[in-house]
Design goal:
Structural class: mainly alpha
Helix content: 25-40%
Largest sheet: 2 strands, antiparallel
Order of helices and strands: EHHEHH
Number of helices: 4
Distance between the termini: 30 Å
Strand order of the largest sheet: 1-2
Oligomer: single chain
Length: 104
């Protein structure tokens, strides 16, 4: 597969090294930059790293690279959605439903 990245000022990629991504954590965050002032939900997750959150959901990417999204917009094929159990989606939905602007 031939992957091409656009020439942008920031040179962002839609792919990240999975091992590095799993170690990602945030020490601080300025909440109101996108107008979420009314959301009183704690931003900080109970999971210290992204990888620990994945483990709690039983996610094992099994690949060296992972697709990422920026700005909260993403897409998935129906085929990939149906690969997971109803229990997985209930847990995933529960995790993401705790607030509008959260670390997960």
């Amino acid at each position: 597969m031939d992957v091409k990245f656009s020439q942008s000022r920031f040179a962002l990629s839609a792919f990240h090294e999975t091992k590095t991504l799993s170690e990602f954590s945030m020490d601080s965050y300025q909440r109101n930059l996108k107008g979420y002032a009314l959301d009183s939900t704690e931003f900080k997750s109970k999971f210290e790293t992204l990888g620990l959150w994945w483990e709690s959901l039983g996610i094992n990417t099994g690949s060296r690279l992972s697709l990422v999204c920026y700005g909260g917009v993403f897409a998935a094929s129906a085929r990939n959605i149906y690969k997971n159990s109803d229990e997985f989606w209930q847990s995933f939905t529960s995790n993401l439903s705790r607030g509008n602007n959260i670390q997960e």
